[in-house]
Design a protein that fits this description.
- The protein is α/β, with parallel strands linked by helices and 338 residues long.
- It is built from 11 helices and 15 strands.
- Strands 5-6-4-1-7-8 form a 6-stranded parallel β-sheet. It has a 4-stranded parallel β-sheet with strand order 11-10-9-15.
């Protein structure tokens, strides 16, 4: 996607804007507005130029079914507050409800469509679902860098039916990625974290061939630790990916990439704000507890290595960042890098 907003006239055009609205929500309130704030430059530019901006995104994992608790409606309301501009909402992302909402738009309007993952065709990258999404617009703009590695209908399928352009956030991220992986200063360290290995397989397989150090955190680290024989208690893990995790470690070894996994973790019996926690080694996770953040010793050890690292690529929080106190390791490392 080499073209960006400088290469297209959007006035009066229906612009299908793929955003990442998969933000942390507690109740019906967005608890971290960072992703919405980063979307504002592209949204504002398109609206100010007189485009009809149709925002699409996934949220959580409804697995192709309508799950009211995973609706984008409250996120559309939060987006309106951040943008300082009215934002309409449609109760579906395709079909009559979406079509009617788009037809009612005027130049400069912003509309958020319902969660694309309420349809199985999204994650299946179904051609017909992709075509239905594309039929709502004249131009496609992708500003969801964090979801761009997935070949889903809203990220890849629609580009077969519409001219595609990078949004301002995507443009910045691609430039930074090219600088980091094109001709980077070595040693290069990549920090990859998140809840599931399955969502970042392509990223991990590519990075271990290009970086010198790969730091794995978040719940995905549990899968790697369990694959190596560690008992991770009630921690979130993907048992069906043990073999894949070991294969990634072997690819890293053959390419001379050092993989850093947690040596200690923060555990709790329940996942809730300000719940009682303990710090334990990876071989001492109680059977009735779950790892919810990387431990302080792991973070301290990596911080000591920072002076020797020339380039850092970071994707995903080290713990359950949206819930205190499981944001501690992410904040500590971010402050040290900054």
């Amino acid at each position: 996607m080499s073209k960006n907003l400088d290469d297209v006239k959007v006035t009066g055009q229906r612009v299908l804007l793929r955003a990442d609205l998969n933000v942390p929500v507690q109740g019906e309130k967005v608890s971290d507005l960072t992703r919405l704030e980063r979307l504002v430059p592209t949204l504002r530019e398109l609206a100010d130029k007189g485009a009809k901006v149709i925002v699409i995104s996934h949220f959580d994992r409804p697995k192709g079914k309508v799950v009211p608790a995973m609706s984008l409606r409250p996120i559309a309301a939060a987006l309106a507050q951040v943008l300082g501009h009215s934002v309409a909402f449609a109760e579906d992302c395709v079909g009559q409800k979406a079509e009617q909402a788009v037809a009612a738009m005027k130049n400069g309007d912003v509309l958020v469509l319902e969660n694309t993952r309420f349809h199985a065709g999204e994650e299946a990258n179904d051609p017909e679902f992709s075509r239905q999404l594309a039929s709502l617009a004249d131009i496609y703009v992708n500003d969801a860098f964090s979801a761009a590695h997935r070949a889903h209908a809203s990220t890849e399928g629609v580009t077969r039916y519409l001219p595609a352009f990078a949004g301002r956030l995507m443009q910045v991220e691609l430039a930074a990625l090219n600088k980091a992986l094109g001709t980077p200063a070595h040693p290069v360290a990549a920090i990859v974290a998140g809840s599931k290995v399955s969502t970042k397989l392509d990223l991990l397989n590519n990075l271990v061939k290009k970086v010198d150090i790969l730091v794995i955190g978040g719940a995905m680290a549990n899968t790697f630790l369990a694959a190596q024989g560690h008992d991770v208690g009630k921690s979130l893990q993907e048992k069906d990916l043990y073999k894949t995790a070991l294969e990634i470690l072997e690819i890293a070894r053959t390419h001379g990439c050092e993989v850093v996994l947690p040596s200690d973790v923060v555990v709790a019996e329940t996942f809730a704000a300000n719940t009682p926690t303990r710090v334990v080694g990876i071989d001492a996770i109680p059977a009735n507890m779950m790892a919810l953040d990387v431990g302080p010793a792991t973070v301290a050890a990596f911080i000591k290595r920072l002076p020797t690292i020339q380039t850092i690529i970071w994707n995903g929080p080290l713990g359950a960042f949206e819930t205190k106190p499981f944001d501690a390791s992410t904040n500590a490392l971010a402050e040290a890098i900054a």
